Amino acid sequence: MRKFRIRTYSLLSLVLLSLLPWVFFVATLFITTHSVQLGVERQDSYRIPMIAAFAGLLLAFFMIGLQMRRLLLGPLERMGQAARQIAAGDLDVQLPQTTVKEIDEVRDGFEVMVNGLQISYRKQADLEEERRFVIAAVAHDLRTPLFALRGYLDGLEQGIAKTPDQVAKYVAVCKEKSLQLDRLVEDLFTFTRMEYQEDELAMREASFHEIVQKSIDSLKLQSQQKQITVVTAFTPNDCVIQADAHLLERAMNNLLDNAVRYTPVHGRIMIETCSEGDRVAFTIHNSGQGFSQEEVNRVFEPLYRGEQSRNRATGGAGLGLTISKRIIQRHGGELTAGNHPSGGAVLSGWLPTDHKE
Known about the structure:
Blueprint: H1 6-33, H2 47-87, H3 101-157, H4 164-196, E1 204-207, H5 208-218, H6 220-225, E2 229-233, E3 240-243, H7 245-261, E4 268-276, E5 279-286, H8 293-298, H9 320-330, E6 334-339, E7 345-352
Parallel strand pairs: 2-4
Antiparallel strand pairs: 1-3, 4-5, 5-7, 6-7
Helix pairs in contact: 1-2, 2-3, 3-4, 4-9, 5-7, 7-9
Region (Disordered): 333-357
GO molecular function, one term: ATP binding
Subcellular location: Cell membrane
């Protein structure tokens, strides 16, 4: 459809206003006098042509008004109706086509706004659905350690554990379950914080190597219990980045905890870092079974656990990798999953050295 500017229609309207009365005048003069000779004195010879010219002027105004209604006012009224539909929550609106470029540009902007609102509403609905799913799943996960904790506490209260060894065992299990509960609650809190992104990050200079080393130290006991060898290959220079050190340490804790959890006894975990211009890259490679193709595509989804061997039996709420990815993305970086050519899972990521929110 060919489109014109409003000024083109304005010029055409002026031509019509100027031409149509003159055409009516000349035509009527010829009909009444059989001559178009002007300036000749004839009594009442111009009365009827003047009335015809006035009628032509009225007709010109009518035609211009009709076109203005069709080309300008009609589309604007329908856009106003569409705006009221959107305000009422109905985003399934049809906007009219028009040959006026200015109105068409407004229409295009309106459509962009409607499409943006539709995407925003879909994201909001997905987020709300995900939130309900996460809360339901975590509530389910909380029940298991709570029931176990209550059972062992009841056993202690009722005197089932009679020997010091039995009492020590019951207390150790209670401590383990309470720590599991603490991890679940902390996971839910961090996930919610990352999901809604309401809090500003406490950005400051931090050594990425120190953050990774703290995470390694915090999981030393778990790795020793499985006799896992942890090997580090840090870049020679100290990688200083702008980061929320507490959150980033939480992300690395989750990644390393995941590696320890799925590495077999006597296995190996390799942690590498390197500087790449204005960013720091890292990889965590474990000697476990690796990811299936489905897991590679979905491992960062909330509560996704994949294969049967990667399920609730290993502990956690299934939020660790999701939280780590969102923390790293919040810092301006990225995190991906894959498999090493020699076998085992690989988590690779990078962070900018100078990220500002």
